[in-house]
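Hi, can you check this record?
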Amino acid sequence: MKIFLDALFFLIIGYYCVSFIQVLIRMESKVILPTTPEERAVIRKHPEKPLAPPKYSKQKLGIIIYSGVLMFVISMYFISLTFNEINWSIYLLLSIPLTNSSDLFNLFAISNDGVLSGIRFIPWKRMKSYQFITIDMNHRFYGFSKEVNNRYELKIKTKGFPVSLVVTSDEMKEKLDNILREHIYGTEKITVVKES
């Protein structure tokens, strides 16, 4: 049982480390959307604050904290091994910081290869569908700020955990809809022009 738990722990730690490195590598790639401060202001990972640019200098705090969390979890595992005090509860305790630090990066960016969201990079081929949900009185984000009320939550369903973000303008919703429709479903939105 201990060998199984060790293997599972290292698979999970390996996944988080690879995801972190992948985001760091892709962070400086060419971004399709959002490209301007105005576009970043209307997309939010957290309802209270607009996105930070996908640059190392702007994501420095998140990079430092997340690196520290990874190092803490790995070092605590090896420290508990040296004292022969490791049991199943240690695995649970060590997994808590990783699961709760998934959104340390205030990051969402669409590139040609996929989507950067928090500490994850999701290639287009791993995305299944998306939908816009209106943030009304019954929505969990309603009331966080005036800009968020009666706007939209975008949920992107992937082959893993879904991606969620808040969109506070109709223009940005339209842009995201066009880009996601093209890359996920392979079709561009058709605009009907009325003849006069």
Confidence is low (pLDDT under 50) at residues 188-196.
